[in-house]
Amino acid sequence: MRKREGSGQGERASSSSPQDRAVYIISVAAELAGVHPQTLRIYERKGLVMPARTAGNTRRYSDKDIERLRMIQRLTQAEGINLAGVRMIVEMESQLELMRRRVEGLDRELEQARRRVQEEIERVRSRSRVGEIVPLSSMLGLRLRLREAEAIGRQQRRKAATTLPGPIPVGPGEPDGGQG
Q1: What is the distance in angstroms between the CA of the first residue and the CA of the last residue of the chain?
Q2: Which SS3 state, helix, strand or coil, does residue 40 take?
Q3: Which end of the chain is least crowded, N or C, by CB within 10 Å?
Q4: What is the pTM of this model?
Q5: Between 1.10.340.30, 1.10.1660.10, 1.20.1560.10, 1.50.10.100, what CATH number should domain 1-127 receive?
Q6: Contact, 28 vs 36, CB < 8 A?
Q7: Alpha carbons 120 and 76: distance in angstroms, whole number
């Protein structure tokens, strides 16, 4: 359950939302919600609603409180749910609202992280020189050309090994060894 505090003059809750502004005294809140003022006191004792308090300890209800009171009335009157069940529903709604806010915060954090990562990628790309990063497809083509060149080199070496050499010189500059 949320806890609110009065501002000293009893006109505001600690929250800043216009719906959270506690301005209605108990008789007006009871009339707006369609219940007796004593019923509002019971709901407060059961923890179903927590009105703000003025410096003089007077209850002040907000539009959000009035919405909650109407929901409680609908659940008890139209749906036949007892106050213990209503309290569980109210608590679950409060937890659900907290989770929604947390998810919204996490969504914002995730979006900020995505922007930072994208900015970092752009920064790295702008600082890198062309040729520092070689695409994989280029490397695969280069590997194929290297294999072809190696195969040609092996063929040339085999051919050279099977070919007989010409005359072997025996003497100084003469092919027949200087006899003749």
Answers
A1: 124
A2: helix
A3: C
A4: 0.51
A5: 1.10.1660.10
A6: no
A7: 56
